[in-house]
Specification:
Layout: E1 3-15, E2 20-32, E3 36-40, H1 47-54, E4 63-72, E5 75-76, H2 82-88, E6 93-96, H3 100-103, H4 110-122, H5 126-139, H6 145-148, H7 158-169, E7 176-180, H8 188-205, E8 208-213, H9 216-222, E9 225-230, E10 233-239, H10 240-245, H11 250-257, E11 307-309, E12 315-316, E13 335-337
Helix pairs in contact: 4-5, 5-7, 7-8
């Protein structure tokens, strides 16, 4: 598959007078054209900050991309000026933010907000832009689009507002759509409808999707590949089938095990003990070691590298999968340092 986005050694830090917070700490991944890649993990692991870094929306002056590159079809977004980046946002890369009520302007109608995007990027006359906005609302399943376009955000339900956000994000046929928790706070019926809309739109215009979520059910519905993040780092990469059938990293195993099985016996859930460390208090060595049932001495003193499977598409950050002999060797799987 043809490559669309490449993120290389991305580091996004926050600074104040007392400390440095490493929100995103050296991550690498690729997204291919037409592909849906899921970025999963608990709250505070760096998922949303990764997406804001790609969009160059890291809160300033305290936040900064201190190292790394973000290439979109060979163009490094990190090197672009703010004016150049404004042309990329909404046109080449669009984003659906987590809470549509706070993302939509409460004093502008739905139509005004969509039309503004279309006229800015496509330079269409207002009459054509309004007609296109109506067609977009119909495309995402909004009834009475001709009248809804004159409504304000507070008059719509959460599901309808989320559809409006999708319509706005897709208004310029972006190459990449970043969806940050697109189904949060929606009931399961509306969630299914939103996911179907995103899948259909992706197929129609061959848009790649970076899906950011903590919901593994959403991942199984929409994604083809999965990246698992923990404490600002990538701990595992694999296809969605591999993640669910054979998770490698102890953290990924814990995430999968914590999902209730509707076909199994009713019993207690299996949560992961402890909490994600705060960015300003990262443990020495492996960041997951304090919560890991398989941790041994080395895990508390040395940080593991991301190991890539030979002749495969998987990667895992764990001493259990190193080629060398020693404690915790995972068996026949062969992995090498990336």
């Amino acid at each position: 598959m043809e490559e669309l986005l490449q993120v290389s050694n991305l580091k996004t830090y926050f600074f104040d007078k007392r400390k440095t917070v490493k929100a995103v700490d050296g991550i690498d991944f690729k997204i291919h054209k037409g592909e849906t890649l899921a970025l999963v993990g608990e709250s505070g692991c760096g998922k949303s900050m990764t997406s804001l870094s790609i969009m160059r929306l890291v809160p300033e002056p305290h936040g900064k991309i201190v190292e790394g590159d973000v290439y979109l079809e060979g163009k490094n977004l990190v090197d672009l000026s703010e004016n150049e980046m404004c042309k990329v946002r909404g046109n080449d890369i669009s984003m659906i933010f987590q809470e549509p009520m706070t993302s939509l302007n409460p004093v502008l109608t739905i139509g005004e907000q969509i039309v503004e995007v279309i006229t800015y990027h496509k330079r269409l006359p207002r009459k054509k832009a309004v007609q296109q906005a109506i067609e977009l609302l119909k495309l995402v399943g909004i009834p009475r689009a001709e009248s809804i376009i004159s409504d304000y955000p507070h008059r719509l339900s959460g599901g309808m507002r989320q559809r409006v956000m999708i319509a706005m994000a897709m208004s310029c046929d972006p190459k990449l759509l970043i969806a940050d928790e697109p189904t949060t706070a929606l009931d399961v019926t509306i969630q299914a409808q939103i996911l179907d809309i995103m899948k259909d739109l992706s197929k129609k215009v061959n848009t790649s999707i970076l899906l950011i979520t903590h919901d593994l059910g959403v991942v199984s519905e929409l994604a083809e590949r999965v990246i698992v993040m923990y404490a600002g780092q990538i701990v595992e990469q694999a296809t969605v089938d591999d993640i669910f059938e054979e998770p490698l990293h102890p953290y990924t195993q814990g995430l999968v095990a914590s999902v209730p099985d509707i076909d199994g016996e009713i019993g207690r859930l299996n949560p992961i003990k402890g909490n994600v460390p705060t960015p300003e208090e990262m443990p020495k060595g492996c960041r997951f070691a304090p919560r890991c049932e398989h941790a041994f001495d080395r895990c508390f003193s040395e940080q593991p590298q991301l190991l890539e499977k030979k002749y495969g598409t998987r990667a895992v950050r764990c001493f259990l999968y190193e080629d060398e002999k020693g404690a915790g060797n995972a068996g026949n799987e062969q992995y090498t340092h990336r």
